[in-house]
User: Fold this.
Amino acid sequence: MTERKESARIKDAEQRRILDEAARRRRQRKALEALEQDNFQEDPHADLKMSKKAPKFEESMDTQTSQPSSRKKKKYRSDHLKYRFKKSFAALIEEEHMTNKDPPNYVSACAKPSKLPPRHFCAVCGYPFA
Assistant:
């Protein structure tokens, strides 16, 4: 009539076995043999046809090696340096504190305590507690 569904977690727990040392070695040896077999298979990409749209990696390597070894200056955009030398928030705060010690600064700025009592809100619905 109706089939009961079984928990996948319970199935997985039942299938797990505690292996002895010999069984572990056998499994490890089989895995290593499978990896070794992969090394001696034919290349699956050997019969691919070249397309005009495909990148030509060989040409770029040949052009670099055929040219004399003259170093070209790399061009950096200004935003590249912004991302490369990005500082953490804590580092920025510390740097600001070291350069600008007289108040007001980020470390010394604070608000006066509130004259009103604190309000508590429900985390689920957002309405204030009574």
About this structure: Residues 12-39 form one domain. Residues 51 and 57 are 13 Å apart (CA to CA). The helical segments are 8-15, 21-39, 57-66, 78-84, 89-99. The two ends are 52 Å apart (CA to CA).
